[in-house]
From TrEMBL, chain A:
Entry keyword set: Transferase
SMART domains noted in UniProt: CoA_trans
Name recorded for this polypeptide: CoA transferase subunit A
PANTHER family for the chain: ACETATE COA-TRANSFERASE SUBUNIT ALPHA (PTHR13707:SF60), KETOACID-COENZYME A TRANSFERASE (PTHR13707)
Matching Pfam families: CoA_trans (PF01144)
One Gene Ontology term of the molecular function aspect: transferase activity
UniProt keyword S-adenosyl-L-methionine, yes or no: no
Family: Belongs to the 3-oxoacid CoA-transferase subunit A family.
TrEMBL record, chain B:
Entry protein name: CoA transferase subunit B
The entry's keywords: Transferase
Family to which the UniProt record says this protein belongs: Belongs to the 3-oxoacid CoA-transferase subunit B family.
NCBIfam families: pcaJ_scoB_fam
Annotated Gene3D superfamilies: Glutaconate Coenzyme A-transferase (3.40.1080.10)
SMART domains: CoA_trans
Domain of life, source organism: Bacteria
Alphabetized GO MF terms: transferase activity
Pfam families with a match to the protein in the record: CoA_trans (PF01144)
Length: 234, 208
């Protein structure tokens, strides 16, 4: 089965529809599927729900889909870097469901693992627990959270082979692994596609079974907060 | 003289023991890393890294290597990387010995509020709720009073909570207090500060 596609638009061909639910990898602007987001913008798909830790910045990442008003709802843990997001949220043009970061990651992991719900201590006694089932285990109270089952997962990796085995780089792995597993279909954009057999099988971060389509492209990889120390401090 | 930011960070660093895996929050907690000295401490960054190093030299920034505050950082010889689900599994699973966090309010039962002020722009809780629910020990570092001079150590938190009964120790510019049965207990007073001054700046019940 051929998994490699020529560009991001081709890799998404036939997968997009209005009102769909997309899980996206990335943390801040690190490891985000920037090419696939651009292609979704060009496709003009409407009323999207995104499960994504963040919402990008105004002109990069999911932010570009907020500019075009293609997003109906965000499920995120932190959205502080995006002025257009706040404007739409305060104007009630956009729905927002806050999830604690670990709960969001586990909801994706659970969905990908066929687990529809799980209990966690995170958020007990806070607004996050409102309306959720509470249950005691060994004298401690937990709340039930539901697994995420998305129509589509879009992720960014460093390298892929043609069977879809993925390798990530440094902290750009983040949400890409759990997001990839929770989609009915997963499309991965990568910096490099390498020949079969050239990735060490013991060092694959995400087995190709989770990846349906792959596209290679050139990435901007924007840095959100450039912090450095001076050489003379060394 | 009350402690300044660096003295508070240095005091918080004394809480960390050799061999600990620790998560430091944004702000004063980040400075704690400068004061661990010879202790073998491994810093976790919840976006998927153990063994967080200092900021890179100019020109060596890597877009794929950031901390939870989205700042460029570096790796160490001990560093490991993992995905977000694994990262929070080790947090929720109690493997991280301690978290040092900032706060807007703490109360005498150990409730913590540090993510949301109603009516003000809401940015989100990030990983704070998971951290306070999961790590072995929660150490709050913050000023004793807010900019209006009101105590931040309250009988009952007024802001939406990050976690209930989660704080173990509070390090402020005036001293160190523990959350104990019945209220807060003063365990240390900053040099030049009196016990009366700490008590006067604390709305929470102070037990002897």
């Amino acid at each position: 089965m051929k998994k490699i596609y020529g560009n991001a638009a081709e890799a998404l061909d036939g997968l997009l529809h209005d009102g769909m639910f997309i899980a996206a990898g990335g943390f801040g602007l690190c490891g985000i599927p920037e090419l696939l987001l651009e292609a979704i913008k060009d496709a003009g798909t409407q009323d999207l729900t995104f499960a994504s830790n963040n919402a990008g910045v105004d002109d990069f990442g999911i932010g570009i889909l907020l500019q075009t008003k293609q997003v109906k709802k965000m499920i995120s843990s932190y959205v502080g870097e995006n002025a257009e997001f706040m404007r739409q949220y305060l104007a009630e043009e956009l729905e927002l469901e806050f999830n604690p970061q670990g709960t969001l990651a586990e909801r994706m992991r659970a969905g990908g693992a066929g687990i529809p719900g799980f209990y966690t201590k995170t958020g007990v006694g806070t607004v996050i627990a409102d309306g959720k089932e509470h249950k005691d285990f060994n004298g401690e109270t937990y709340i039930m959270e539901e697994g995420i089952f998305a129509d589509l997962a879009i992720v960014k990796a460093w390298k892929a082979d043609d069977t879809g085995n993925l390798v990530f780089r440094k902290t750009a792995r983040n949400f890409n692994v759990p997001a990839a597993t929770c989609g009915k279909i997963c499309v991965a954009e990568v910096e490099e596609i390498v020949p079969r057999g050239s990735l060490d099988p013991d060092s694959i971060h995400l087995p190709g079974i989770y990846v349906n389509r792959i596209v290679q492209g050139s990435h901007e990889k924007r840095i959100e907060q450039r912090t450095t120390r001076k050489t003379e401090e060394a | 003289m009350p402690w300044d930011r660096n003295q508070m960070a240095a005091r918080a660093a004394q809480e960390l023991e050799d061999g600990m895996y620790v998560n430091l929050g944004i702000g004063i907690p980040t400075l704690v890393a400068n004061y661990v000295g010879d202790k073998d401490i491994t810093l976790q960054s919840e976006n998927g890294m153990l063994g967080m190093g200092p900021f890179p030299f100019e020109g060596e920034e890597d877009a794929d290597l950031i901390n939870a505050g989205k700042q460029t950082i570096t790796e160490l010889s001990r560093t490991s990387y993992f995905d977000s689900a694994t990262s929070f599994a080790m947090i929720r699973g109690g493997k991280i010995a301690a978290a040092v966090l900032g706060a807007m309010e703490v109360d005498e039962e150990g409730d913590l509020a540090n993510w949301m002020i109603p009516g003000v722009l809401v940015k989100g809780m990030g990983g704070a709720m998971d951290l306070v629910a999961g790590v072995g020990r929660v150490i709050v570092v913050m000023d004793h009073t807010n900019k209006h001079g009101k105590s931040k150590l309250l009988k009952k938190c007024t802001l939406p909570l990050t976690g209930k009964r989660v704080v173990n120790r509070i390090i402020t510019n005036l001293g160190v207090l523990d959350v104990v049965e019945g209220g807060l207990k003063i365990v240390e007073i900053a040099e030049g500060v009196t016990e009366d001054e700490i008590r006067a700046a604390t709305e929470a019940n102070v037990v002897n």
